Amino acid sequence: MKNKLTAESPMHDRRYPWRIYPFLLRLAGIIAGALLAAAGLELFLMPHGIVVGGVTGLSALFALTTEMRLGLFLFLLNLPLLVLARKNIDASFAIFTVCGLLVFSIGTILLHPYPALMGDPLLAALIGGLSLGLGLGLALRFGGALDTAEKAAERFRSLKRKSLSPEGMLMMLNCFILLAAGFHFGFEQAVYSVTAYILAYESVKIPLFGLKLNVLVQIESRECAEIQTALARYLNRRAAYVGEAPSNGVPQMLEYKCHRWEMPRLKAIVKNCDPDSEISIHS
Fold this sequence. Notes:
By secondary structure, the chain is of the alpha+beta class. It has eleven helices and four strands.
C-alpha cells in the first residue's frame, strides 16, 4: 500500500495537480503583468502619442506613425529578438515570454477601440508609465518578459566582445526612440514621453525588489582600490573590502550600501574603472 502524499513529500512523488500548480501560478502572474502593461499603453499612453523606451517604445512609435495596430508590432518585433537571444535563456523563460507576448499583443488589440481614461496628457503619462512599468516588472518577477531588448543586447554583446555594454546599447536605443518621437510629435510630447519612460523604468523594480530603497551592492574587481577612490570622490560613499586585504592583480570584493536611485551612476563609475568587474545586488 502506498504512503499518503503530503505537502512534505518529494515533488516527483506528488500527484500531477501538485506539480502543475507552480506552472499555473507563474503563468497567471505573467498574464496579469501583460494585461496591466496593455492597459497602461492603450488606455493612457497611446491615445496621447506618448512613447517609452525598449521594443515596447519602438513598437508604439511604428504604430503611431503607420496607424497599424500596436499589438502586431509588439509580437513581430519581440519574437525575432527572442530567437536571437535563445542561447542566453532557458526553455521555461522562452515559453513564458511567448505566452506573455501573446497576451500583451492581444490585450492591446482588444483595448484599442476604447477611449483614453485621462484627458490630461501629463496625468496620463504618469499613470500609464506606472501601469506599464508594474506590468513589465510583474512579468519579470514570474519568470518571463514582455520586452526582449535587454536579452537581445546581452546576446549581441556576447557575439562582439568589444562592443558597448548591454546597458549602453539600451541607452542608445532609448535615446533614439525618444528623439524620434520628439521630432515627429513635438517638444511637448517628448517631455511627456520622457516622464512616462522614467516612471516606467523605476516602477519595473517594484515587483522585483519591493519598496525597499536601500540595497547592498557587491563589486568583484581587480581594480578595487581605484573603484573605492572613485566612489568616495563622486558619490561621497565609502566601500568596504570583504574578506582578505587587497593585493595587486588578484580579484577582490567590495561591499557598498547605496540608494536604489544611485545604481545607474554607481554602475557607470565601476565600469569606467574596470569594464570586466562583476556587480551583484542584494535587497
